[in-house]
Amino acid sequence: xxxxxxxxxxxxxxxxxxxxxxxxxxxxxxxxxxxxxxxxxxxxxxxxxxxxxxxxxxxxxxxxxxxxxxxxxxxxxxxxxxxxxxxxxxxxxxxxxxxxxxxxxxxxxxxxxxxxxxxxxxxxxxxxxxxxxxxxxxxxxxxxxxxxxxxxxxxxxxxxxxxxxxxxxxxxxxxxxxxxxxxxxxxxxxxxxxxxxxxxxxxxxxxxxxxxxxxxxxxxxxxxxxxxx
Length: 229
Prior knowledge:
This protein folds into two domains: 2-86 and 197-226, D-Maltodextrin-Binding Protein, domain 2 (3-Layer(aba) Sandwich), CATH 3.40.190; 89-188, 3-Layer(aba) Sandwich (D-Maltodextrin-Binding Protein, domain 2). The protein contains eight helices and eleven strands. The chain has helices spanning 2-9, 22-39, 52-60, 114-117, 130-141, 155-163, 173-176, 210-221; strands at residues 14-20, 43-49, 66-70, 79-87, 89-93, 121-125, 147-152, 169-172, 185-188, 196-203, 225-226. It is elongated and about 60 Å long.
């Protein structure tokens, strides 16, 4: 209700409604919004944190002004898309795994056999999430069905459980960086198999407000390449 009446209680504020996946927002929004709001103090941001398909549906129906997501090739071609940055995927290996190598952090891709790793038990995000769609593609490339021991709506939860020995998981740099330091191995997955590109989408043909154009420009000019060293 508060979101619906905001335009009446704050008539001088321009509202931008952003759709975004929660786990993606925890990395991208702090990179984008603070500087944007300093430069555009008349703007009020409203967040709609949903799975990708719901965000896309809300954008197409006009319920939100823009949608920040990943893998732009997967969304409706009628939308205006601006891409920037991205991140790498890793298999997270805890000390509980027989594949764990003490004293190492990021493994060389030649140190382990990816197909062999994919046959281990996995903790994964639920079907319907952006990352699960990508992860399923990796298993399909090797004609494998994942051995799922647990699914979570949160990739942060799935990653944390894997770190604590519940199974392996496939996660991204921005997620792994948020979890406290602990002994793990990260096995990098080739960009040819799985790759994340961030995007901001808006409706084509609609007159975009100056503030929305500024937000898109802010997204485009930021360094949004999540990395682990």
